[in-house]
Amino acid sequence: MDTSTADPATLLDTLDRRLVCALQVDGRAGTGRIAEVLGVSARTVTRRLGRLLGSGTVQVVLMPDVRDRAVGALLLRVRVLRGRTDAVAHALAARPDVPFVDVMLGGQEVGAVVLTDAEARDHLLYGLLPATGAVLETDVHAALHLFADAGRWRSGHLTDEEAAALAPAPPTTAPPGRDDLDRRLLDLLGRDARRPHAALAAATGIPESTVRRRLDRLAAGGLLRTHATIDPRLLGMAVDANLWLDVPPGRLAEVGDALAGHPQVHGVLATSGRSNLMAAVFCPDHAGLYRFVTETLGPLGVDRAETAIVARAVKRAGVLPGGPHRR
To answer: Which residues form the HTH asnC-type domain (predicted)?
Structure first.
């Protein structure tokens, strides 16, 4: 994604934006349920969602589960030789343990999120990246606490009442142990989280009633969190930026929680490294980013903010824009 303003003719209309926001709340919500909450006909919802999903404008996938990984999430800032950015970005994006990859404005930095075990982490950080002549330097930040991830972002086109009516039931149990069938179902939903029960039953060769029971169990354990991936420019958000913040330790939790609830923020993590908080934000333009820094961060008492603007999203929640899904 570049930072130029999108052609207004390509922007989604109000109903499409509301449908996208409904999928952000619950990516597996049925068309009838969405139609009832939004006050439109089921036929209209079916037609509109068919166009949005069929064209790849919106892709609904499962959010990666950090709890599956022994070392949690790592945030990488990889500085590369000019002209070699695409090669490094796409090499990282090809890895199934890297769900997010961005090329930053200026073309000499690649940002990535890594979810892996210790062995694969060490091979990447101490073997593959240093051996790549295009890589000049790598900063590694461990995610110490997750305040909000991309799966929690809402584009703000639903009322609070509508969002509450669409919201799935919160988890009621700890994440359950998973057998081969659970992993198969999660893999299928990882490619398309809107697959209906019947399609999952056909793909796995098990009864639909068994699929329903398994998915209910996985949902109760918080393993069916979805993410509706869309180019934010279509929602009027032309600028994506990562803000690396210095916050007094005594206020870190307060500031993280405040940013997690902001409608422009699509990720907030407490991190190791020179900065102790990273927030990813969508803004309509550079003036909107300036207002966010001055009017939102300023009153929160942030000591310092480094702003890194995303020039292009290469991979989001395991999705390669315009390409196949990767897990």
So the answer is: 179-238
